[in-house]
Task: structure prediction
Amino acid sequence: MAFNELIFLFKRRSIYPYYHLISNFNLPHIQNLYNYRNVEQFEEDLDFLMKHYKPLNPSQLFETKIPKNSFLLTFDDGLLETYTEIFPILKKRNLKCIFFLNPNFVNNKDAMYRHFMSVIISDLKKEGFPRSKKSKIAEILRFTFKNNEDFISSFLNLKFEERNKLQMVYEVLNFSTSNYLEANKIYLNSSQINEMILDGQFFGGHTMSHPPLIKLNLNEQLEEIHNSVEWVKNEFNLNYSFFAFPFTDSLMSKELFIELFKLNPDLRIFGNSGLKNDIDSRIIQRFSMENPKKIINKQVVLENIRALVEKIRSRNTIKRNEKF
Result:
């Protein structure tokens, strides 16, 4: 039986696919980190979703009961392409979605360090991976490599807590992060965000600076999360609260969620653990539709089959450690 036929077995459950961006171009700050769908693929995703599911307006997430057979798209990181590529498509189809921002990067004041790392790799590729530059970088970051692929893997494997070493790499390469952001806009600016809000799009926090939260203590986690949500609300005069975890929510403690809901009982939180239930109905789990090699009808069916198997095994509700 074809996946398009199987989808009718699972349509009662609402789904929350998420993306970071859509683009037809190779973007230096992204292309070495992950693959992404092009505009045609995104349009095909929407054709499928709108045929088999009903669009869910983000405001409905605050209602007592979320309608069955609905879908809601969300987009992480506040990348420029959400305005230049995605927003026009959503307007054309009258779809309302949620976009999650890192306040430290809005208006291109700064960027996530891994985006700069991708730019550096892209520049090295253009230069034919000069041995002298690779060796200097490897010396600074204290790794060895056998070939270009090995170099890229080792470079991107830089630990979060060692990211400050990149400043020495920038100096060796004569790379200015501020000059790059001046010439190459990566993120949304306030004017673009306001335009999207006026059209009915929704925004939320994604931590202040996109750290791997598992590397932070509880107070630091709360600060990154709560401050990002409040900044977005205050900066754009919003009366709702949304947050999406960067990287993963899988190791986040029950204690963290309890403290977050104490600070803001109306907060709606998005994870990325697939079609799973969580410890609180205010936590909504999503699955990624980023990979251009995945076909949406097949992925939606497989996500539902996986959830059904986990339910049979009594493993479809996320178990969280009590304490951090």
Notes: The first strand starts at residue 17 and ends at 19. The chain is about 40% helix and 10% strand. The radius of gyration is 20 Å. The chain has two domains: 13-110+187-312, 113-183.
